[in-house]
Design brief:
The structure holds 2 protein chains of 2 kinds. By secondary structure, chain A is an all-alpha fold. Chain A has helices spanning 2-17, 21-42. Helix content of chain B is 68%, strand content 0%. Chain B is built from 7 helices and no strands. Classes of the chains: A mainly alpha, B mainly alpha.
Chain lengths: 51, 195
């Protein structure tokens, strides 16, 4: 799944290079949103600190 | 208004992109030299570095624009959040750590420092309004990347590293969820066991 995030970022870079900048921004946005979701998924270990 | 012409702005962005590439290369060097697999949070920090690199690539291709810097800031804030989460996991003495320390600090701490510096550097670059003047950015005779070989080299190095991360992460995690902590390259082990 994390490889998908890298793939989306790579596609965004390639699209920008090919002058498809609107699509590039869209792909980057999807990658960023999925990254936040994936951080929430993996950040499960309890912190031994008082916030 | 502080003046910074588009040409030096592009050079500074190219140097910034090379620094990001250098961090990704160093991460690979430690991964392979010390045989230490990156954990899921470590990989997410690399994703954020590629996101910062994407913002820099946009500046190299199209010339500097405030929203390109915005993309860098969003990516760096995301990466910094992941780093802080991992630092907090191990901040209390006796709660262990992940990976080997480099110059006394663990990778995630270095990543946190790097993202802080990206935010600082981006905020600094945003001060220079002269770089946004389109008429000065790309003269037709310059072609792409403002005709700068350094910008072109930095862009393709970033693209190569992004592709390399797709491949290495796929080998480590496969199409599913990454093991936490990872013990081996899951896809390679699966292929070996089937063969």
């Amino acid at each position: 799944m994390i490889s998908l995030l890298f793939a989306l970022m790579t596609i965004a870079i390639i699209l920008a290079w090919r002058d498809r900048w609107r699509l590039s921004y869209a792909v980057f946005t999807v990658a960023l949103v999925l990254s936040i979701y994936w951080l929430d998924y993996h950040a499960t270990s309890p912190l031994t600190i008082k916030l | 208004m502080i003046i910074l012409a588009p040409h030096p702005s592009r050079t500074l962005n190219a140097i910034g992109l090379l620094v990001i590439c250098g961090i990704l290369i160093a991460a690979y060097a430690f991964q392979f030299a010390l045989d230490e697999l990156p954990c899921p949070l470590c990989l997410l920090q690399r994703v954020a570095l590629v996101g910062v690199g994407y913002g820099l690539c946009l500046n190299l291709i199209y010339g500097a624009k405030p929203h390109h810097y915005g993309i860098m800031l969003l990516s760096a804030i995301y990466g910094g959040s992941v780093s802080i989460r991992q630092i907090l996991l191990h901040i209390v003495p006796g709660t262990g750590s992940y990976g080997s320390p480099v110059l006394g600090l663990h990778y995630y701490t270095w990543a946190g420092i790097s993202f802080f510096l990206v935010i600082l550097g981006t905020a600094f670059m945003l001060l220079f309004e002269g770089q946004y003047k389109k008429a000065l950015v790309d003269k037709p005779e310059h072609g792409r990347f403002g005709g700068q070989p350094l910008a072109k080299f930095a862009f393709f190095l970033m693209l190569f590293l992004a592709l390399a991360n797709v491949l290495s992460t796929f080998l480590e995690c496969g199409p599913g969820i990454c093991d936490d902590p990872p013990t081996d390259y899951k896809l390679l082990e699966e292929l070996k066991s089937e063969g």
